[in-house]
Structure formats: C-alpha cells, structure tokens
Design brief:
Layout lengths: L2 H7 L24 E3 L2 E3 L8 H7 L2 H31 L10 H4 L6 H26 L14 H5 L6 H21 L4 H25 L19 H13 L19 H15 L6 H20 L5 H23 L17 H8 L18 H15 L1
Antiparallel strand pairs: 1-2
Protein name: Phosphatidylcholine:ceramide cholinephosphotransferase 2
Pfam family, one: PAP2_C
GO biological process, one term: sphingomyelin biosynthetic process
Length: 389
C-alpha cells in the first residue's frame, strides 16, 4: 500500500503547520575565546542555528569543526604575541647589523701609530748623535779643499738661498700637519709617515758614518772639535735637537752631515704625502706644494750647502721608499705572493706589523678632528629634522 492511500484512509487528518525560524543578533558581541596556560577555554554562547546543529550532529563533522576553530585561534594568538614582542623590542631604536669584516677593514690602531712615532723619534735623535760623532772626523778645509762639483762650476753661491730652503720646508711641513689633522684615517696615514721618516733618517745615519766628505764650500763655519769632551758633545746634541737641526735657529754649527741631504728628504717627503692624501681636483694646491719643494731643493745647491750627489741620493731614496711602501700597502693580493720582490725588503716584517689589519686602500676623507658634544649633536639633529618638515 502506498503512502498516499494510507493518508486518504486516515480519518484523523491534521492540518499542516508552518514554522518560521528567525535568528536575532544580540546587542553585545560574543565573548572571544581565551587561552589560559596553554588550554583553550570556551564561554557559553548562543545556541547554534539549526543548520549548524544539523551539520554538527555527526561526530566527524563536529570534531573537524572544533579542530579548525582551535587551530585558527592558536595561529591568531601566536601572531599577536610575535607582533607585540617585536614592537616592545624595537620601540626605541632600529638595530642595523653591519658585517664585522667590512666594519674593521680600516682599523685605527693608535697604539701602532705610537710605536711608529717612537721609531721615528729614536732615529731623529740618533741622527744628531751621529752628526756629533762625524763632526770630529771632518777633514780641515784648509788641508782638504771641497770636492769638485759640476753644479758649483756653473752656478755661483747665493748666501740667502739656504734660508729660502728652510722657510719652504717649514711651510710644507706645516701644511702637511694641518692636512693630516683633518684626515679621517689619520692613524693609518700617521704611522706610514713616521715609519718613512724614521727609516730615511736611519739610512742617513749609515751613509754619513761610513763616508765622511769634506765641506762643500770654504764659506762654511764649523764649530771647533771637542775630541774627548763627552759633556760638551752631549750639550751639542741637546742644542741641535732643541733647534730642530735648522740653521735659522742657530743650532746647526756642525759639519759632516752631507751624504745625504736631510733637507731634501723633508722637502720631498712632505710634498709626496700632501699630494697622495689630498683630492685630485686640488691640482692648484699640488702645484703650489711642488713649487715650494722643487725651489727649496734647488736653493740647497745654489747656497752650496750640499754636494749635488747629496741632493740626488736624498731625492731617490725618499721617492723610492715612499712608492715601494704605498705599492705594497695598496696591493693587498700581492702581499702574500711569493713572486712579489717588494716583500723581500728588510723592513717587510715591520710593514706587516703596521699594515696587517688594513685590508683596503685608504680613502681620502676629511673630518673634524674634535667631535661635538652629545648635546650639540642632539640639537643639530632637531634643527635638521625641523628643516626637513
């Protein structure tokens, strides 16, 4: 029997009932679920809708729904926690990490500069000692006349020329000192300068001591010899040091320091450092310094204070050791090359000590020698920030 027949036979026919189901949103939002001690706590919420209830009637659907809600809540909680911790950590500043190797490619290492300064100071003082010793061995000009010199044959002596030499030297040294103070990497450049000064004057001590030349002109006035008077020799050394070895100060009255010329060394070395560590666009500055250096060297010969060989050897010794040192300093790959013949110099261990941690060519950068106080820097930032706004 079909269902329609059963309905027709049934006398108790019930009228159809219509049910309207409406859902209303409460005025207060439902409480969010909380996580306490790692356990999810659920609050009582409004009864589920019939559709949701019908979906959750089966155990599998109910478990999947709960698992998806639990995983989404955990992800939201982790995201909020990471964001809040990140904000707390970076609320005051943003830390930018710089690779350590790049940051330390040009270390200052002032203590090495101090060692190089002591090296130069020792050789300068030792030079005055050698001059005092050699002075006692200079032959008398009345017995041994000056050696023949081709430059002296063609150019007569000009008495004031040597004063020009020393004035030019003082100007060049002063310019280099001011320039060095304003350089950013003054520690590295300073120890290079001190090492070259010390090495050149050590060479000068050797050449003066092993070969004593007669005076280059009969106009030269030499102090009397002291022979075995040790106290008098000490006073002469102190006087020579206090006057800087200059004739302008009246401290240099000894003879014998001819091979090679110390004035040529300082004139040439000052110019080389000024040109090497100044921008190329300052060509006018380079030409002025070159003129001061060249005219000073020529005036040494015009004054007949040194033989021509003294000036030539002084120039070659200064320029070659300067170029050798800076070639090795700027060619970092060739330092460890076995075929690098420049590394066979006797001073290569000293070079490695001074330049071991300098892994890049020193740039020409200027900066103020004295840093501003923190309060001034803070005001400067405020002013700059106000201008940007």
């Amino acid at each position: 029997m079909t269902a329609s027949e059963l309905i027709e036979d049934n006398d108790d026919v019930r009228p159809p009932v219509e049910a309207n189901v409406t859902t209303t949103n409460s005025s207060t939002p439902p409480h969010p679920q909380r996580v306490a001690n790692g356990n999810l706590t659920r609050h009582n919420s409004s009864p589920p809708t019939p559709a949701a209830a019908a979906t959750n009637d089966t155990p599998d659907g109910k478990n999947k729904h709960e698992r998806s809600k639990l995983s989404s809540l955990l992800k939201q909680n982790q995201l909020i926690h990471s964001l809040s911790s990140g904000l707390r950590r970076h609320c005051d500043y943003v830390k930018i990490t710089v690779p350590e190797e790049r940051a330390n490619r040009l270390p200052k290492e002032w203590w090495k500069t101090g060692v190089a300064f002591l090296y130069a100071l020792f050789n300068l003082i030792f030079t005055t000692v050698i001059i005092t010793v050699v002075h006692e061995r200079v032959p008398d000009k009345s017995v041994n006349p000056p050696l023949p010199d081709k430059f002296f044959d063609y150019v007569d002596r000009v008495p004031w020329a040597f004063t020009v030499t020393e004035v030019n030297g003082l100007i060049l040294v002063g310019l280099w000192l001011v320039q060095w103070i304003f350089l950013k990497h003054k520690a590295i450049i300073g120890r290079r300068c001190f090492f070259l000064i010390g090495t050149l004057y050590m060479y000068r001590c050797v050449t003066m001591y092993i070969t004593t030349l007669p005076v280059p002109g009969k106009h030269m006035v030499c102090a009397p010899k002291l022979y075995n008077d040790s106290t008098g020799k000490i006073w002469r050394i102190l006087r020579l040091i206090s006057g800087g070895g200059l004739s302008l100060t009246g401290s240099h009255l000894m003879c014998g320091d001819f091979l090679y010329s110390g004035h040529t060394v300082m004139l040439t070395l000052s110019y080389l450092f000024i040109k090497e560590y100044s921008p190329r666009w300052m060509w006018w500055y380079h030409w002025i310094c070159w003129f001061l250096s060249a005219s000073g060297v020529i005036c040494i010969l015009i004054a007949h204070e040194h033989y021509s060989i003294d000036v030539v050897i002084g120039y070659f010794a200064t320029t070659r050791i300067f170029w050798w040192y800076h070639t090795m300093a700027n060619t970092h790959v060739a330092r460890q090359d076995l075929n690098n013949y420049l590394s066979r110099t006797w001073w290569n261990p000293i070079f490695n000590f001074l330049e071991r941690n300098v892994q890049a060519t020193v740039p020409i950068v200027f900066s103020w020698p004295v840093t501003l106080p923190s309060s001034c820097r803070q005001r400067y930032r405020i002013v700059e920030g106000g201008r940007d706004e």
